[in-house]
Amino acid sequence: MSLVASTGFAGSTERTYVRLKTLKPKRLNAGDTVAVIAPAGGATPDAFERALTNIASLGLKAKIGKYARGSNDFFSGTDAERLHDLHWAFEDAEVKGVWCVRGGSGAPRLLPNINYSMIKKNPKVFVGYSDITALHLAISRQTGLVTFHGPVASSELSEYTKTHLVNSVMTPSANYRIQPSEYNTAQSSALFKPNVITPGKARGRLIGGNLSLLAALAGTPHGLKDVKGALLFAEDINEPPYKVDRLFTQLRQSCDMRSLAGVALGVFSNAKAATEAETASTLRVLKDRLGDLGIPVISGLSFGHIRDNCTLPIGIESELDTATATLTLMESAVI
Q1: Under 8 Å between Cβ of 224 and 218
Q2: Cα distance between the two ends of the chain
Q3: Based on the structure, what is the number of domains in the chain?
Q4: Which of 85, 110, 182, 198 could disulfide-link 37, Cβ–Cβ 3.0 to 4.6 Å?
């Protein structure tokens, strides 16, 4: 989506958005170089080394951003430093993909100053999640580029996580089916298990990310706006039920969620953090806030702040089936 015009009646201004043509990046191949950047929080030395090990395990080469190892309070660097590395990663001709080393906080601060036209001229695989949601939404809206909500470079790459990442950005196929992780469904917490709120099948372009960031961007030029016919996915971690309620309430009041094709929810806590009472309360909140939309909704799918985290390409046609708790990517996300 891109802001292309301002119209309205006397005394008011109404922003008009036109959906941009989908722009797919080139797939990554063994031997390619990927940029490692930290556009939000900083990574510990151990986490950074794990990121480099992960990249090597995929047969890729790492090229580290000038400020990627930095630390500036709870950010990895100043806004200017983090923006520098983001722009460098897309401009450098040697770099074929961009992998965020971690999430954290600070990505939304960069959005007003990003050179979106430069990114559109240099489309590349861009991967991350959590706070990186802000960059996914802004880049998607301003350029049409398909980006990847998947593990950060410093994630512990389980076999499930690694397989779905590779099959999204390196060896893609159409009609690629993503099922819940056996590890996740074996957890004692009901939040890790598929829970059908409203049954059915839905098909549309994938949009979404971390719930806190989706809500934080509401009311800005980068937030969810025209969601008609889209498949929304959302996840979060360590948010008590009353905050989950507040976040979804904010989304409901900032975009027309009834016009969505469906909603796929990840895991909203980790196995150690949620008591049985908190788990039951969170499930009630999800049903209360989403169960009246009149569209298919399911929670407990395997993505987000969990060990087994599948990769979801933002902007491509996908299908949700609550009966099988699956998401199917109907087309390749890369060329």
Answers
A1: yes
A2: 21
A3: 2
A4: 85
Q: pLDDT by residue (tens digit) across 218-270?
A: 999 999 989 999 999 999 998 999 999 999 999 999 999 999 999 999 999 76
Examine residue 222 and state whether it is found in any structural domain, yes or no: yes
pTM for this model (two decimals) = 0.94
| Residue with token string 């008009």 | 16
Residues classed as catalytic? 130, 235, 305
Q: Same structural domain for residues 184 and 285?
A: yes
